[in-house]
Amino acid sequence: MQIQYAKKTFNFLLEEIHRLRGEFKKIKTREHWEYPESVRNHPLSIDLDLCTKQGFIGIYDVTITEIGFQTYLKRFLQEPLEDTKFNFHSQDIEKILKKETKTQAYHLLRKFLVPEAETNEKFPLPEVNAEDFFWKKRRLLKVIFPIWGTITPLYLVLGLLFDLPLIPLLLLINGILFFSYRSDSLKQWKEIKSLSSGASRFQKTFIYLAKNRKATKQMIGRITSLGDSSELLISPLPHLILNLLCLWDLWKIKSLEKWKLKFGNLWNEIQIQIVQTDVILPFVNFGFLFPEVSFPIPSSSGDLSARSLVHPLLPIESRVFNPLTPMLPGDLMIVTGSNMSGKTTYMRSIAMSLLLAGTGAPILGSEFTFPEFQIHTLIRSQDSMEDGVSFFYSEVRRLSSIIQNAEYSKKVPILFLDEILKGTNSKERYIATREILSVLREKKCIVFLTTHDLKLAEIPWAKRFHFTELEIDGQMDFDYKIRDGVSGSTNALKILKKEGIPIRNEEE
């Protein structure tokens, strides 16, 4: 066990080093199809590559519990939480990161969590349900069965010894009773197994967090012992015989009830602590790995700006911090530039910083202010052969949905649009894009648009920025720095020639 725990700790530290160095390919993450369908098909997941092998969600996922993982996903994708007790605020993360001993405790707890777990494996840790649905429907049986369940086996023993009558009748009555409660008793057994499994798997964590360790050990011991009884369910015949002889399920359900009355509150108290830690840990861990992070500042005026920011998945040696000019509701930023110069990465850097800010996490940057927002992205449109939907129509439907949501949103809609309406001719694309941007301005949206169409940059209310390439010793190079104004250079033909594709009439 000690060797296993040492290996788990070593692997944990090794993954932390890979995260710190940006060696994301060395981290074992989920496959895209392993995420829930609602998550992998979420527009933010698609457009910001959140669920790819080296996407942010997988790289920084250090959750262990099923509830923690689901809450982490919803929190990051700005989806409403069903259970608000697992909610947290930026102040909670900030307090943890500012207290060195507390941070160490969190990382110690991370290593306590399931040392035998496989990578990315999540485990159930249920809450104790205080509602007594089983006995609620069987109040009379609850009173009678202890007497009946004691008398029956005694009578059977005596009956076999002294050839007493009514033995078949007793067995028949017990059989009828068993089949009358069997479906509900199986649900109770499912709860017992779930609690027992959670107690066994998270035993060290429960004891580590407990104020009363003696009571906690008793709680774990009793539910684990009760869970061991469930092994008999694997063999239907012995299970049936035990219920015919003494109504065995009812005794175990009664034991579960006593356990809940004595330990239910203690269990729920520590269970909430574990899941709350599990939910917040990915964001605490992100801040712990990068001490240079800063916490975003909420803006009541609707202002969105930053002195500097960068995409959190860029390796340290490749990070180029760029400012974000102040943007207010109704503002439009158009970013132009040559291929591979950094336009889309810059836009994704802003979007990722917003998502982190929305969770309460720190960001890689400084002086980041943000309003209460609703984020929308249109970076990757997807066609569908099955539905007969083209790229163009897919984009139009997404844009229509975004505009309709903006109409009724109490939050500031922030849109990220990358080369929209690619599936039509340049004249109609310009007219359509201009009108869409006008509507979004009326809806008080903040819009970021990247484009190669320099005519779009002539829109009078747009704030214009660009990225460009540098030529060093006849070779293209990029500094990934944002600059004022419209791009004055292109590099598509240079890239084609570099890859061996001849351009015979370049002057045209």
TrEMBL record:
Entries under SUPFAM superfamilies matching the protein: P-loop containing nucleoside triphosphate hydrolases
Keywords recorded for this protein, A-Z: ATP-binding, DNA-binding, Membrane, Nucleotide-binding, Transmembrane, Transmembrane helix
Domain DNA mismatch repair proteins mutS family residue range list: 330-505
Transmembrane segments: 140-158
Keyword presence, Cytoplasm: no
Cited InterPro entries: DNA_mismatch_repair_MutS_C, MutS, P-loop_NTPase
GO BP terms, alphabetized: mismatch repair
One GO CC annotation: cytosol
Pfam families: MutS_V (PF00488)
Keyword set includes Transmembrane helix: yes
Entry GO MF terms: ATP binding; ATP-dependent DNA damage sensor activity; mismatched DNA binding
Protein name: AAA family ATPase
Species annotation: Leptospira brenneri
